[in-house]
Design brief:
globular, single chain, four-stranded antiparallel beta sheet, seven-stranded mixed beta sheet, 51% strand
């Protein structure tokens, strides 16, 4: 079992930045892919970014490329999502997820096994 807890959400203005954190516990994350997803009101959950926990390879949705950056701190069992140049359309609940031995280009939420509870990000214009 992997337990994931997100934090760092909040209400910001368009153009601001936020860094989301995902604290992982329960087992070693070696071999895991760590993903970030979001779900806006009335919309389906969508993939945002992912990182392989040990090698640090990353993969992004086109909508966030150049604005968001996913990273991890192996020593702290933490995964981060740095979000810059936020837009109102980024408003959503953001979730951290994990899956063992997953190809990063697999961007469906159904491919991930473990999920956090989510953190709300609200961007006003």
């Amino acid at each position: 079992q992997v337990q994931l807890v997100e934090s760092g959400g909040g209400a910001v203005q368009a153009g601001d930045s936020l860094r989301l954190s995902c604290a992982a516990s329960g087992r070693s994350l070696s071999g895991y892919a760590m993903g970030w997803f979001r779900q806006a009101p009335g919309k389906e959950r969508e993939f945002v970014a992912a990182i392989t926990y040990i090698s640090g390879r990353t993969y992004y949705a086109d909508s966030v490329k150049g604005r968001f950056a996913v990273s991890r701190d192996i020593s702290k069992n933490m995964v981060y999502l740095q979000m810059n140049s936020l837009k109102p359309e980024d408003t959503a609940v953001f979730y951290c997820a994990s899956k063992y031995d997953l190809v990063l280009s697999r961007t469906s939420g159904r491919d991930y096994d473990y999920w956090g509870q989510g953190t709300q990000v609200t961007v006003s214009s």
